Amino acid sequence: MATETLETAAPPKVQIVERVVVRMAGDSGDGIQLTGNQFTTTAAVLGNDLATLPDFPAEIRAPAGTLPGVSGFQMSFSSFDIHTAGDSPDVLVAFNPAGLKTNIADLRRDGILICNEDAFNAKNLEKAGYKSNPLEDGSLEGYRTFAIPITELTRKALRHLKLGTRDTDRCKNFFVLGLLYHLYQRSDDITLRWIDKNLKKQELAEANRTALKAGRAYGEATEAFQSVYRVEAAPSPAGVYRNVMGNSALALGLVAASIRSGRPLYFSGYPITPASTVLHELARYKEYGIVTVQAEDEIAAIASCLGAAFGGALAVTSTSGPGLSLKSEALGLGLMTELPMILCDIQRAGPSTGMPTKVEQADLLQAMWGRHGESPLPIVASSSPGDCFDTAIEAARIALKYMVPVILLSDGYLANASEPWKLPDQKEIAQIATRLIEETSGGKFQPYERDPLTLSRPWAVPGMAGLEHRIGGLEKEDVTGDVCYDPDNHQKMTDLRQEKIRRIANDIPHLIVDGPTSGRLLVVGWGSTRGSIAGAVRRKRSEGKQVSWVHLRHMNPFPANFEEILRKFDRILIPELNMGQLEKLVRMEFLLEPVGYHKVQGKTFKTSEIADKIEELLEV
Amino acid sequence: MTVPTAVSETGAPAPLKAEDYRSDQEVRWCPGCGDYAILNAVAAIFPKLGLKKEDFVVISGIGCSSRFPYYMDTFGFHTIHGRAPAVATGLKASRPELHVWVITGDGDGLSIGGNHLIHAMRRNTDLKILLFNNRIYGLTKGQASPTSEVGKKTASSPMGTVERPFNPIALALASEATFVARSVDVYKDHLQETLLRAAQHRGSAFVEIYQNCNIFNDGTFNDITERDVREANNLTLRNGQPLLFGPKSARKGLRRREGDGRLEAVDLGNGVDESSLMKHDETAKDPGLAYALAHLEPPEYPAAIGVFRSIETPTFEDRIWDQIRAAKKSKPAADLASLLKRGDVWQVEEDGKILEIGG
Lengths: 620, 359
Fold this sequence. Notes:
The complex is a heterodimer.
Chain A: E1 13-16, E2 19-27, H1 32-45, E3 49-55, E4 70-78, E5 91-94, H2 97-103, E6 112-116, H3 122-127, E7 144-148, H4 150-158, H5 165-169, H6 172-183, H7 189-198, H8 202-221, E8 227-230, E9 239-245, H9 246-261, E10 265-269, H10 276-283, E11 291-294, H11 298-310, E12 314-319, H12 321-337, E13 341-347, H13 364-369, E14 379-381, H14 387-402, E15 405-411, H15 412-416, E16 418-422, E17 470-472, H16 487-503, E18 519-526, H17 530-542, E19 548-552, E20 554-556, H18 562-566, E21 569-576, H19 581-590, E22 595-598, H20 607-619
Parallel strand pairs in A: 1-8, 2-5, 5-6, 6-7, 10-11, 10-12, 12-13, 13-15, 14-15, 18-19, 18-21, 21-22
Antiparallel strand pairs in A: 2-4, 3-4, 9-16, 14-20
Helix pairs in contact in A: 1-6, 1-7, 4-8, 6-8, 9-10, 9-14, 11-12, 17-20
Chain B: E1 5-7, E2 13-15, H1 35-45, E3 56-60, E4 75-78, H2 84-94, E5 99-105, H3 106-112, H4 114-123, E6 127-133, H5 168-174, E7 179-184, H6 188-200, E8 205-210, H7 222-225, H8 227-233, E9 234-236, E10 244-245, E11 252-256, E12 263-267, H9 288-294, E13 303-310, H10 316-330, H11 336-340, E14 345-348, E15 354-358
Parallel strand pairs in B: 3-4, 3-5, 5-6, 6-8, 7-8, 9-13
Antiparallel strand pairs in B: 1-2, 7-13, 10-11, 11-12, 14-15
Helix pairs in contact in B: 1-6, 3-4, 5-9
């Protein structure tokens, strides 16, 4: 398929398209995530709206060429406002047979399939479980297949640099990137700058630059790639933007909350997928006075947060489902001692180790009830990568105002997905009030004397003379905080702890219905399914269907007007990446009968899945 | 050392006393419990440290000993089983100027909280960790603990325990604690002296305190503490001094045995004098001798009490804050604006034009 007639290449025919979905798949070591991120940044800076979805295996380097070792990256970029990384790719780049096998089912009919022909050898075909070579046996009919000897072409382009084969072959992802840049009419600038900044070894930098150019040149010179595409910039509100992944936005939100509350940030976490990058990110912000501690275990991480909170810090830990289980006893101590802290649960597919790199929303009920005793806690959930920033600030606001641990639910999809994020105007980030006592008034200090409105207790930290007091897990006497076994007092304190959480409902924004405020069908979503639901609802409306939608940020307590909204619709659809957890809460709380739509496949909803479900419910 | 003062009713400054560190809460340990003596010793030394009362924080886990913070008029945190060192780590890392004391026991510190204890010592967090060792679970009514001797009959081991005990000093040494000491509840002066040394150490200071539980394990340290055996069975460690023990009439010492280099007890006199004995060096980088001393026990040897190890090295929180200071120095403009504008940033103008503004 390669052609040598470079000089005769005519200018390509440019076709304008509104949206393109590209997926790359290959070995974990093929540099898929890096290539994807480069393509994403370039698209973002060109003003496309975009969404990305990395999909990597739990193993860091599973045996090359095998199905479990396939790493994928999907990105969608468009000239209009999009919500997800797309249901089915328009372009699939398969670096090897395993990458083809695990992804070909998703490629849309007539889609572009680019395969590294060199990797389709007998050994790799066998590893991927192919009996015959799909590039030759006609099984790929219906796709626009380009079998390109990518390894060979990269080697040829880099031959003059005299690098080892291993280093040379590692440049083939940039060859592909160059080809894609040609295909979608992007400039090399951003990537060239990235190479300058990040590849310190001159030979490697030169090799990657060369591979990138070779990929583009190949596309320009190849007849099959003479039809190229352009995706115009998406109209977006004026402002400063950057591309952000969920866990990065979460970390930034925590730092912003620290600045706005005037409380130093203390963060402790134990490595766990997909939460570890929150720790990585915050460990890089030391100039903000942030103390980060990699704890010896999950329990130590949250326990140390309680110590830091006792000392007056904005204390935060992050984990995933198994870690939330381990931390539940300490959450009980946090709510008993009424100390402010945030626990970020970046949910993943469980139970147990489950599928650590895959998404699920199945910790909601654990967050609600996974503790001993009567132990209600506030819960907030992030719904997009950029929203992680806002939710972090909201979690801090509630924790510091109400003196309570707050659980923030994110998930593995949000953690690694990215989107262009309009930087918030600094003025929009409000000051966060705390219950810190800054001056002593004399007299005996009463650690459990509550604010009559919020029921929040004062925060007296060591170093303040005259405020010496003791707290602990034993039941407290109302007002004094002394150890107390009185039966009526335990009832009273339990009531107070519950009432404190209930009153938060008066202090959070009302839900706003997207669409008519009454009608036949309301979709109720929470968390990372926002993009899929938004897309589905818009699609159905564009077909003339009437459907409304609310998306929850506050999972406990619910916003004050939630019930009122729910009761104005004939039917309620609750799509969740679990077996119906919000659905159960809604049934229990409001005695309603919502329709649940459940998916636990380690993948988020396709827009079409939710759209079809909406259709189904509207037909009945 | 300056003596801290409090303002008395007449307005004249008065030095703080042990009573000033005692809270108004009624102490609820069993009458005769060794914990009373330890509480008195801690309250006695706090005023001697020349520190502000409001800067002390006492943190405990769960167990009889862990009720301790309620009885001290300082900031206090009675946490959950085994986690006190972790709670204390978070506090000390974020507030390095505070004086953080951890109170734990053999069950709390060595069983459920073993992981936190060893890591707190490994990091050299500046915590004073007092482990009350009574070789039994008291608050849960008499089960075998990780320091119970093999064969001990308890509620949970009616035919005798089948587990081998930890040696807390050896564990602390292996965890790279920079200060390791042992004392005994009833040795009032020695206990206070040891606690003072621990308080003055910068870094993780681990003090094992032999403590009698007169309800569930009465007399477990009698072979060390009883008057008639005390002189023979106690070796008080003194830095730079020869390892001597025993009554004046039958003075003994420890020396290296020829051949295998192991410690052996010898009678002084008959040509054996102090110069042939091992000298204690608590600052030794290699904790080998300290480790050997930790394992001595009657009847063959005396039990060693005192400071096994005391070395200086930067603390955990020193290193954390050194990094923060260095980061602040190299990036002085740490505000919200510079926080958000990281990575590739672009600007969308009112007319939709896109300007690339950084990267």
